[in-house]
Every structure is written in C-alpha cells, then in structure tokens.
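Justification of resources, computational component.

The compute hours requested in this renewal are based largely on the per-chain cost of generating structure records like the one below. Each record pairs the submitted sequence with a full structure-token output. That output is archived, and it is also reused by downstream analysis tasks.
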Amino acid sequence: MWNAVARGDLRARRQSSKSVGLVTFSLALLAATILLLVPQELEGDSRIHLDSPYLLLAIQMALFSYLISASACGEIAIEGEKTIWDLAGTRFPPRVIVYGKMTSSLLSCLTLLVMAAPFQALVVGLTGASPALLFVGWLLTLAIAWTGAAVALWGMTLRESEALRSLVHWAWLGTVLLLSAVFPAPWRLLNPFRALRDAFDGGWAWIGSLGSYMVLSLVFLEWARWRLQRWRRLDEHLREG
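The structure output for this chain reads:
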C-alpha cells in the first residue's frame, strides 16, 4: 500500500507555490550555468571543455542535496506538509513516518533530476561526453540527497528546536561537501565531488562511495525511527502515570 505520509508530503509539495518557486529557481540556475559553459559562438567541430558536464553535475548535486535535505528538516517549510513531530502523535507507526518522509524526499529529488535532464542532454551533445557519466551523476545525487535527508530527519528527533535542526543540517552539508575533500585516502571519496571526478577519470571507486552513502543513510534512518519510538513510549508512560 502506498505510504500515506509520503502521499501527503507529495500532495503538499505539488500544490505549494513555494515548492514550484524553488523548482523554477533551481532549473533557472542550471540554465544559467549552461549559458556560462557553452560559448555563444560554438560552431562546426568546436567543442566546449570536457569538464563542462562535470561542473554541471557538481552544481546540480550541491543544489539538489541542499533543497532535499532542507525540506526534510523543515528549514524550507512547505505549507501543508507535516513535520515528523506533527506526525509523532498520530496512529502512524514510527517506521511508516520515517520511511514515508524519506520516500517523498527520494521522489522529489528524482523529479528534479528528470526536469533537469534536458540541460544535461544538451551538454552531453555539445561535448561528446558519455551518457553513462550522467547516469553516475544521477546516482550520486540521489544517494547524497537521500543521505542528507536521513541525517536531517534524525536531527529533528533530537529536540523540537529549529536552531538544533539547522545546526545538524549545515554540519552535515559542510562535512560531506567540503570537509570530506581533505579526508585521508580512501575516506576522501566520501566527498561526492571527488567521487564524481573519479567516475570522469574512468575509475570505479565511486561505487564504494555510493555504497557508503546508502549504509550511512540506513543507519540514520533506523536511529531516527528508534528515537521516535522511544519518545512515544515515554509519552505513553507519562500519560499513564
């Protein structure tokens, strides 16, 4: 059966003017990136630099990761969308709440990727880059956005505090997008930009990065589910007492 929490989130995002505005802004930013990457005088056999697909995918990865994780933690509040604490007092089991939230995050990211696909196809056509690299970019973007949403969701279970959830959110983004780039090998491949560069260089280490993101996301999801379930038990105990 389709998860009711995910269904409610997706309906709220589809009907929200803020959500539409964020999607429009994201696509406009990617379009502007292409205008900067593609010379206006491109003719005949001329080709833009091979790094153009990498730059487009890297910008897309950072942008979509932020939007998805910020929406998951409520930093970007969508009207009509219930937070994890709004749902904590409902009849939905903690697992349904947590994985419903993650399902809506994953589908939202996939929707953004599909809408951005024409921009990627244009750059591939102009550079002659392998479409397989775009597929790798999609996988890494989905993985890093999914993991960011899981960490953001876990951060929300720590306390009903906007300051704390923002701290967790930005600490995650700073660590994975910036700080991880200076980690010692092989941990530096946890940086999505290095993992993407590895794929462009013909390596396969990005697969390990992808697996690491998925494991990390499941750890934080189960941790969030456990914390939510623990909070419910404590709440029930206090009511009975």
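The CA atoms of residues 154 and 224 lie 5 Å apart. The chain is about 75% helix and 0% strand.
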